[in-house]
Every structure is written in structure tokens, then in C-alpha cells.
From TrEMBL:
Cellular component aspect of the GO annotation: Golgi membrane
Protein's cellular compartments: Membrane
Superkingdom in the source lineage: Eukaryota
UniProt cross-references to Pfam families, sorted A to Z: UNC-50
Main location per the UniProt record: membrane
Protein name per the record: Protein GMH1
Organism for this UniProt entry: Candida verbasci
Entry keywords, A to Z: Membrane, Transmembrane, Transmembrane helix
Keyword Iron attached: no
């Protein structure tokens, strides 16, 4: 089983266009260097972005079977470290931090064919999840060594930060986004619909978005904590900006993730809704006109009330 090497950049990768099949024949474009032979089709042409309708029960059944196979593949790779692709996972982590929009445009969600009519965009490699879990565990140990008195307290902190903050919160958020997005973008919601968004894809998006929270709240906050806990206006602005900024950026990266789906990012309306709304514009409206303004108002209110969110959160963690 070959691993993905450095992810390729072509014009088609960075600027996907619906129906632009002629681009793949351009002599200036280079084909992908390596692909997963077990799950990726050999031709990553522009038809990747052309939604197709399901046609029969056989293809529907094969889609469900593929989803189960995808989970089994991830579990098998956990037991076989030599099949894990940490190189690509590190590439994803680096670009999620510096430029998440560009990372999503590079097709790091490789299409995995379930049948002639259905594709999956969910990871089949747990390397990213393993690395992020490891980063969170190391951060929790560092926090524990600095502020917790005993080994038991450190272990409790690891369990809380990794399994409560990341996994349990992620399961809840992924379930909510899975339900909401499928209701928004599908008239007939079922797992066999060509536009059906899988729960595992929503959890992938959570993992990607949580990376910035790890950077700001688990790493940067740890380094700046002596300043944040001072009783002055600088500490107040810095601490509150870290929390509200990281949460806001979480939703921005989440938007990029869902917008990377072809039936959302394209201008083709795949539903028969009379309102004829563009799914990408709906997502933008929710994030830009809904969530971000609420976070900005919350940030301003905490400053007026002189409530240092960072200081209170640390006090909650360490009593």
C-alpha cells in the first residue's frame, strides 16, 4: 500500500471548476504524483466536481457497504503503523494553521469511489487524528506539570482535555452539523443520496477546526498565562481575544471544510427549492452574519464587565 507523497498542486487543484473537463488536457498541468490504490480513483479530473444522481438500489447498497469498509480500513491501519501516512497528516496540519482555505482547495479529501454514482470525501487514514490526540495529550501533561500537584491530577487533566474537550465536544458538534447541513442541502435526506453528508466527514471537519483551538488555547495561552492572569486591561483584552478569536476561527475553518464539498461550492442547485438558494451563500450567511457577530458582541460585553474569560477558565480547570 503506497503512501501519499507531497500533495501536488495543479491549476485544477487550486481553482476547481464545474464542467471544466478540458483543463485536464492542458499540457501545463501535471497529474497527481501518487494516489491511494485502495480508495482513490486514478483520474482526478474535473468530473470530481460534477454531482451525479443515484440510480438504483444496488449503488445505494454499495455506498452503505463502503462506509462500513472505510471505518474498518481506519481500524486496520491503527494496528499496522507502517500503513499510516503521517507525512500527509503533517502537511495538512501545517497548512491548516497558515492557510486553511488553500489546504481545502488542494483536494486533501481525496475522492473515494463507492460506486459509479457515489463518492465519499471522508478520511480513511487515522494519522491526523493520532497526531492531534498526541498534541493534546502532550499539552495536557505540560499544563499538569506546571499547575497540578500530583500524577493523578495530571491524568485527570489529560482525560478531560482529550476525551471531554476534544472527543465528546466533537461528537456533539459533529452530530449537530451533520443533522443541520443535511436538512439544509437535501430535500430527501437519506444515506444513499448523492448529496448526503456523512457524519464522519463532519467529525473530520471538527478535527481540522479544533487544530487552531489547540494552537491558541492549549499552547499559546500556556505560554502567556503569567501575563493573562495579571489584573489589568492588557491581560483582559489578551485573554478574552484568545478565547473568542479561537472560537471564531474554528467556525471559519468549518465553513471552508463544508464549502469544499462539490455540491455546496458549485453554483448548481441540486434541490428543487423555490427559493433557489446557493448552499455556499447560506453557509457564509450563517458564519459571517450570524456566528461571528455574536462572538464579537460577547467579546465586547466581557470587556465592559471586566470578565477575564481566560482567567476564569484556568481557575475552573485547576480549582
Amino acid at each position: 500500500m503506497s503512501k501519499r507523497a507531497n500533495l501536488p498542486y495543479t491549476t485544477q487543484d487550486l481553482f476547481p471548476q464545474v464542467g471544466g473537463s478540458n483543463l485536464i488536457h492542458n499540457e501545463n498541468l501535471s497529474p497527481p504524483k501518487t494516489i491511494r490504490t485502495n480508495s482513490v480513483t486514478s483520474n482526478l479530473s474535473s468530473n470530481l466536481y460534477i454531482p451525479r444522481s443515484t440510480s438504483n438500489f444496488h449503488s445505494n447498497n454499495s455506498t452503505f457497504s463502503f462506509n462500513l469498509k472505510n471505518y474498518k480500513t481506519m481500524f486496520k491501519r491503527l494496528l499496522k503503523p507502517n500503513t499510516l501516512d503521517f507525512e500527509t497528516a503533517i502537511w495538512e496540519i501545517f497548512h491548516l494553521i497558515i492557510n486553511p482555505k488553500k489546504m481545502y482547495r488542494s483536494h486533501y479529501y481525496y475522492k473515494q469511489s463507492t460506486s459509479s454514482t457515489k463518492s465519499s470525501y471522508t478520511r480513511d487514514d487515522p494519522s491526523f487524528l493520532i497526531l492531534l490526540t498526541g498534541f493534546l495529550s502532550i499539552s495536557a501533561i505540560a499544563w499538569g506539570l506546571a499547575y497540578s500537584p500530583t500524577i493523578i491530577d495530571i491524568l485527570k487533566l489529560v482525560i478531560y482535555m482529550v476525551f471531554i474537550d476534544f472527543y465528546l465536544t466533537g461528537i456533539i458538534i459533529s452530530t449537530i452539523t451533520w443533522i443541520v447541513t443535511n436538512k439544509l442541502f437535501n430535500l430527501n435526506i437519506n444515506k444513499y443520496n448523492i448529496n448526503y453528508i456523512e457524519w464522519s466527514f463532519c467529525f473530520d471537519i471538527h478535527c481540522n477546526s479544533f487544530l487552531i483551538i489547540w494552537c491558541l488555547l492549549y499552547v499559546l495561552q500556556f505560554l502567556l498565562l503569567p501575563i493573562i492572569r495579571m489584573k489589568n486591561i492588557v491581560a483582559l483584552i489578551l485573554g478574552n481575544s484568545l478565547y473568542f478569536g479561537s472560537i471564531g476561527y474554528y467556525f471559519i475553518v468549518t465553513f471552508y471544510g463544508f464549502n469544499s464539498l462539490p455540491f455546496i461550492s458549485s453554483n448548481i442547485n441540486n434541490t428543487k427549492s423555490s427559493s433557489n438558494k446557493n448552499p455556499a451563500k447560506v453557509l457564509q450567511l450563517v458564519v459571517i452574519a450570524g456566528i461571528l457577530p455574536l462572538l464579537a458582541i460577547g467579546w465586547l460585553i466581557t470587556l465592559i464587565l471586566r470578565c477575564n474569560v481566560a482567567d476564569k477558565m484556568v481557575s475552573t480547570y485547576f480549582n
